[in-house]
Write a structure and sequence with these properties.
disordered N terminus
């Protein structure tokens, strides 16, 4: 079922995601220091410099995610390497005609934003391939510290799996700081003794109507 319930996540203000990569500082320091060699027109230099300087904070402004910006290390590597490859190719060229260099930087920036958006969302969607509580390690774009996401996957193949999954969900909620008084009214249809006769259909109906 194409359903996803993400648990234990709070929104966070972040400066960007790419700056959490180990090579970001060295790479972008090089890009900023060599920007004056890339255009015949002096007006391109401050524009391009500002794009590079504000890269991280502008990234977060453009993400427009309804979920916290937390990315897996593997996907961060993929995004970063894709960006560095394009940037390195751009810097290998000689001086460009007026306007070309900053326009190319903007194009790389926009594509990078899309890559980060897709990487974060894909990890959340992958949760539905699991049955019950699932946890995966991430890097928080807010402060580049190790983090994790806990979610509830609905890809269960039998009512018995649903029963175990829901029991795990109900057991997890109090540990995530959800008061028991708030859980019982919302999920009474999934609590004992109802679990004994749980089916995929009524479990799905219960979870989607509360």
């Amino acid at each position: 079922m194409a359903l996803l319930l993400c648990l234990g996540m709070t929104a966070a203000l972040a400066r960007g995601c790419l700056h959490c990569h180990s090579n970001f500082s060295d790479k972008f320091s090089f890009y900023r220091h060599h920007v004056n060699l890339k255009s015949w027109w002096v007006g391109d230099i401050p524009v391009s410099g500002a794009l590079l300087t504000d890269w991280s904070q502008d990234t977060m402004k453009e993400l427009h995610l309804a979920i916290p910006a937390e990315i897996t290390e593997e996907k961060l590597d993929q995004v970063a390497n894709a960006v560095y490859q394009r940037m390195d190719q751009l810097y290998q060229g000689k001086m460009y005609f007026p306007g070309y260099f900053p326009n190319e930087l903007r194009a790389i920036f926009r594509d990078q934003v899309h890559l980060i958006q897709n990487a974060i969302i894909e990890s959340r969607i992958d949760c539905q391939r699991h049955c019950g509580i699932f946890r995966y390690e991430t890097i928080s774009c807010a402060n580049c510290t190790s983090s994790h996401v806990v979610c509830f996957g609905y890809n269960c193949e039998s009512s018995a799996q649903w029963e175990r999954a829901v029991q795990g969900l109900l057991g997890y909620m109090p540990t995530a700081g959800v008061p028991r008084s708030l859980i019982s009214p919302s999920f009474t249809c999934l609590e004992p003794p109802h679990l004994a006769n749980l089916t995929l259909e009524n479990a799905s109906e219960c979870l989607t109507h509360h």
